[in-house]
Amino acid sequence: MADHSKFYIDGAWVAPKGTGTIDVINATTEAVIASVPEGTPEDAAVAVAAAKAALPGWRATSLDERAKYVQRLSEGLMARAGEIAESVTAEVGTPAPFSQIAQGNLPWMMTSSYAEIANSFPFEEQIDNSLVIREGVGVVACITPWNYPLHQVTAKLAPALVAGCTVVLKPSEVAPLTAYILADVIDEIGLPAGVFNLVTGTGPVVGEALVTNPDVAMVSFTGSTRAGKRIMELCSQQVKKVALELGGKSPFIILDDSPAEDAVRAGFQSTFQNNGQTCIAWTRFLVPESRKDEFVTVAREVAESYTAMDPAQATDFNAVGPLASKAQQDRVRSYIAKGIEEGATLVTGGPEQPEGLEKGFFIKPTVFADVTNDMTIAQEEIFGPVLSIITYKDDDDAVRIANDVDYGLHAGVYSADRDRAVKVARRIEAGQVDINGPQFNVKAPFGGYKQSGLGREYGTYGLAEFLEVKSLQIPLG
Ligand code: NAD
Question: What is the pTM of this model?
Answer without folding.
Answer: 0.98
